[in-house]
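Figure 2 data, in text form.
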Amino acid sequence: MKPLLIELGTEEIPAGYIRPALEGFAALLLQELDQNRIEHGELRMFATPRRMALTVEAVAARQSALVTEVLGPPERIGWDADGKPTVAAAKFAEKIGISLNRITVKDTPKGRYLCAKKVERGLATKTLLARNIPRLILAIPFPKTMKWADLKIQFARPLLSIIALWGNQVIPFRLGNVTSGRHTLGHSFMAPVKIKITDPDNYVKALQAAHVVVDMAQRRALLAEEIEKAAVASGGCILPDEELVDIVTNLVELPKAVLGRFDRKFLELPQEILITAMREHQKYFAVIDNHGALLPCFVAVNNTLAKDMSLVAKGHERVLRARLEDARFFYKGDLSESMEARVERLRGVLFQADLGSVYEKVMRLVRLVGIVAEEVGLESEAREQLVRAALLCKSDLVSQVVGEFPKLQGVMGRVYAQVGGETQAVAQAIGEHYQPTYSGGALPQSIASALLGIADKIDSICGCFQAGLIPTGASDPYALRRQGIGIIQIMQAKALGLSLRRLIEKSLALFNENRGRDSGQTAERVYAFLRDRMAHLLAEEGVSKDVIAAVVSVSVEYVPNVWKRAHALQELKSQPDFEPLAIAFKRVVNIIKQAAQKDIDQASAAVDQGLMQHDSEKALWEAYQGIEEKVAGYLKMGDFNQALLEIASLRPAVDAFFDGVMVMAEDPQLRANRLALLGQIAALFDLFADFSKIST
């Protein structure tokens, strides 16, 4: 067994492409080795902006032999009366490539058959990989690919070299205009020469000698050490930004940090502008003091060690000064215009071709937040502030700063609201209403922020569904899935008892009041869309699929209740006696469904005690009456676990009922009364879930 190395040398690949592509390449390679029965050890990943590499320890020289058992004709056909092989046996042996004396007889459920073991010898690993690696390389996932020269292949950036080594042997193949070999390139400035890799074990050391830190974890740790050391020289420390560390790690091959400074006058700008100007455009790290305040310093990371790093620092300072001067000019220009004036300018900003302008969206939000504020019982002052926040929440979209730094939308809205004298509640709601902005992101903190965020997101979802812009497969250009998940997470976190169906209907009504459209079908599609998002979130929390299906199929009207029902049922399902309970409840549901299919729909009729002939009927009715009020009380208190336990206590009475009576009796009155009794029982656990969907 020998180690395997594959390195793809390229022109510089975008930082955000590298890790997902490398992980995809690793998965493809491991799948290829496993499917081809090639034994192997641990896989490791390496990358810089100009290369992606995989090494695999202890790769076998050949495929493992494949032994399969093959059945032939029946024994009576394969052997004659004297026990000698017939033509059928000879043909069977010839077909699988063995001699007649290797055929045995095997007992099977269908009788005795001729049997033989077929052994397929494995091919050489080098041969298989030479044939398949080019296909794997072209299958590496990238957000975008390109063509170059007159070649037909596509990759993220042009391929310059390929190393393919098994031990010290080259795996020969050609891809595009590149032939596999054992040479790579050193650092583009400090060692721009070809480096010969004799074998995979010396790959990392050979590149280290050529000033390339190819191990991503090692390079990240070195970068973190470098930037912190540079920041300490200013008397401060780096503003924590793990995402930026990850990005810059994949922008350099040898990280060398340098401290730069800027004029203190720029500290008059909101710190969000300063941080964004440094981070987004230049990938510089901000520096803070012991109290978290920004210092007039930054740390830049270079891809090389210059002779005079102070000269390098001055170059970075000149670039940043220009950025900050622009930001200062834009900010001062924005302060000269009121937020109300910017709201009016939203009339000229298109939200979506079929949905009108952003100004129209704002007017819908103003009305929608008034509706939701009333539903959750906000006091009049809080309601007024929420409506004010809705009116101003998109005004920063036409500000000069957001035009230059789009990621500051919402943030600058909050800043301008504070500068303009708006209340803290209004400013906070404006600043937080976009949250969460990514999966796992922070949620709005205040109730006003939460309600405005919900209104904004449901307006976008309903509008896009109304316009036919529904997410399909991997396509979701308006990020509706993220916004749907955001609505659910906010409602869950804030325990908001908003009716999801009414929220959808009110939102669609605001779109359609001047268009005369029927929003019924759209409302159902939006409701189903959000129901699917809830199922996805519950699955991520570890709730079993059958419990999720049972819970969401009944109702997802009130989001916090969906979570309580799902976790209560999940907990009950873990109990050892759950299976007979589920079977009993399933039987109730199935009988009612069967009766409905036969047009015998009496499940909702009143129960007549006078028609009860058997003690089990009376016992079930008494048990039901004994817990009905208790269940209602627990539900009112939000104690879904205890309510479900009360319902579960009906199982013995339900079992006795089925043992004691024939539900579908010939007497129509008895049959109707027993179905009505079961209907009352079913109505209780229908408050939680459809038990027919529970796996037993």
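Caption note: The longest helix spans residues 309-335.
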